[in-house]
Amino acid sequence: MLYLNRQDVSSLIDFNELIEAIEHSMEIYDKKQFMQPDRIKVNVSDSETYLYMPCFTEQIKGTKILTLSQGNSKYNLPTIQGVMLLNDPKTGTIDCIIDGASITGYRTGAVGAAGIKYTSGENCRNLGIIGTGVQAFYQAQYAAAVRDIENIYLYNTTAGKMTDFAKRLKEKLPKVNIIPTVSPAELVKKADIIITATPSSTPVLPDDAALLEGKHYIGIGSYKPNMHEYPESIYKLLDKIYVDVDFAKEESGDLITPCEKGWFREDNIQTLYSAVKSNSINRNKTTFFKSVGMALFDIFVAGKIYKKALEQGIGQRINQ
Asked: How many Å apart are CA 166 and CA 173, to the nearest integer?
C-alpha cells in the first residue's frame, strides 16, 4: 500500500492533466458509467461537517473522507482535512492512501478551471477572487493555467489575510499582478472572471445588475442550503446556470433559493458537460458556473496522481 502526503501530491501535479481528468469524469457522469452512493454528510454544527464520499467505476474505485471545520483558523489549522482511499478495482485491496485535503484542493481547482475554460472568453485577462482561504489559492493557480491572466484582484473582509495571500500567490504566479481591493464592487468592476470561494450565508457580491452584467462567475464556496454567495440581481442576467452535477440543485443555497423564490427556473440549470456537448454556451453574455463537487471527480484525480507516483517512485510504502 502506498501513502502520499501533501508534499508528494504537490510534486506530482500537472494542472492541465488534472483538468483533462475532470473533463473525462464529467463525460463518465453524463454517460452514467459509475456507481456513486449518496454522499453521507453529517452537520455536527453550522461550522463542523463530516463527509463520506465513495464512488466506483470499472477502472477505479475509492472513497474520500473529510472533515470541514470552519473554526480551525483559530488553531492555525486548515478548514479541510481527511484522507482519500483508492481500492484495487478487482480485489478491493487498499492500493493507496492520499492526503484528502490536497485531493480536494486540486480537484476543486480543476473543476473551477473547467468552468472558466468553457464559460469565459479566451481573451479574459483579469481575475477577481472573493475569499482568500485555501481553496481560493488553488482556484487562482488553475485559472492562470487556462487563461492568460495578467491581474488578480482580491477581496477579503480581513485586510491582513489578503496581504498574506497575495504574498504566497505571487510566489506561485510571479508574472501576475496580485492586487487587493477595498470592496467587492471594486473587484467586480475590474475583473472579467469572478470566483467566489467563501462559506458566507449572505451574498458577497453587490446586488447591482448593471455592475454584475457581462462578467463570468465561478461559484465554489456555497455547499449547503443556508449558504449564499450570489445576490438576487445576478439571476435576472442569466439564461442558463451551469453546474458540475445535477444534485447541486439540492445542495447549494445559490441554486435552491433562487428557484424557490422564483428568481430563476430550475429547468434552465444544466450540467456543464451537456452544454459543452451541445455547443450552447454564449460566452459573450453573463455566465455562471456553480460547483459542489462529487466523489467521481475525486477518484479520477486521485487515480491520475497515484499512477504518476508509481511511475516516478514517489510515496511511502506501508505494510498491510
From this structure: 10
Tell me what the pLDDT averaged over the chain comes to: 95
Contact 288, 241 (CB under 8 A): yes
- How many Å apart are CA 312 and CA 314, to the nearest integer? 6
Cell triple for 27: 463525460
State the pLDDT confidence band at 77, using cuts at 50, 70 and 90. confident
Q: What percent of the chain has pLDDT over 70?
A: 100
Class of residue 189 by CB neighbours under 10 A (exposed 0-12, middle 13-18, buried 19+): middle
Instruction: Judge whether residue 320 has pLDDT over 80.
Output: no
Q: What are the angstrom distances between the C-alpha of 108 and each of 36, 101, 128, 143, 208?
A: 18, 10, 17, 12, 28
In order of start, what are the domains of the chain with their CATH numbers? 2-104+295-317 (3.30.1780.10), 121-290 (3.40.50.720)
CA distance 317 to 320: 10
Amino acid in position 139: Q
- Residue with C-alpha cell 485586510? 159
Q: Which residue has the cell 450540467?
A: 271
- pTM to 2 decimal places: 0.93
Task: Catalogue the E-assigned strands of 232-276.
Answer: 241-243, 269-271
Q: Are 88 and 310 in contact (CB under 8 A)?
A: no
pLDDT at 226 over 80: yes
